[in-house]
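Box 4.2: Ligand-aware structure prediction
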Amino acid sequence: MIRATLLKLSESSRFAHWVTSNDTTRRMARRFVAGETLDEAIAAARACNSVGMYTSLDYLGENVATVADAQRARDAYLEIFDRINEERLHANVSCKLTQLGLDLSTEFCEGLLLSIVERAASYENFLRVDMESSVYTERTIEIVKRVRARNPAVGTVIQSYLYRSESDVQGLLAYGCRIRLCKGAYKESDEVAYARKKDVDGNYIRLMQMLLGSGFYHAIATHDPRMIAQTIRFAANKQITKDDFEFQMLYGVRTDLQRQLIKDGYRLRIYIPFGKDWFPYFMRRLAERPANLAFFLRNFLRSR
Ligand SMILES: Cc1cc2nc3c(=O)[nH]c(=O)nc-3n(C[C@H](O)[C@H](O)[C@H](O)COP(=O)(O)OP(=O)(O)OC[C@H]3O[C@@H](n4cnc5c(N)ncnc54)[C@H](O)[C@@H]3O)c2cc1C
């Protein structure tokens, strides 16, 4: 109920204005968002690299409404790849297709994506296309397949809460596509997605096994100790080495687990979001954990 309300509020521009113009909420968002500028994201990535963690930089933004905004986002991503190369960071990049104009035109969005992937490839780097709500799943997968056929420096994300995901994994593996597996962060109806955590987790384990057994390099993105333990156990049983896959976690979430995985010799990549458009991302993080909302409300009331 709370999760659904927060995810609904994440679509409200009036609420967004209120949250983003308030100093207390801006401060709280900094737990999950590295900053508003690329320099701040680079500093966060450097700090992660210094303790052995890889990173993925995400320039926040989604559902742009104009061609000019989508082109600006494309330019920002080109600059991010240039800076990663200049700074010699262990970092790749994540982006959302609605930030590249998917709501405007599939062809236009695909063209922008291809230009970013070509820049990534020129540095032997990699672009991950995040997965958004199920309204976009089919188009995202088809675009990624077409772009990947032209340049392999791109991969995408599969969400274990969607019923369709097993068949999407099979389709993407046929293209040799690298996949990040996550549970899924959007509000979905029970016509398309499992509602119960037990079912989402069960599907996560099934899909994790398909990915790790595929022989391609994939990412297991979760903060759930049970999913992590199952992954470690499955890899050990199948003689899949620690270098054959990576774990991924979000900036500011379960830093205790992050340190433990590094200590145990696993590859870990931290997803580092930055930029001014942090509101929907922040709301999804609040929705994931009731304790985050309690923390938010406590701080907010204290500040009044
Ligand atoms: C690297 C990365 C990339 C992602 N990319 C996408 C994407 O492209 N599309 C998409 O839909 N989703 C994406 N997600 C979000 C994902 O779908 C989940 O919503 C999120 O990771 C929470 O699921 P979980 O696996 O951690 O398990 P859960 O069962 O939700 O949580 C397990 C435990 O993790 C901790 N935890 C989880 N979330 C939080 C939080 N916000 N704050 C504090 N503690 C928390 C809690 O201790 C919780 O008990 C991504 C997640 C990661 C880690």
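In the box above, the bound molecule is flavin-adenine dinucleotide. Residues 130-131, 157, 159, 182-186, 221-224, 248-250, 253-254, 271, 285, 288-289, 292 surround flavin-adenine dinucleotide (CB under 6 Å).
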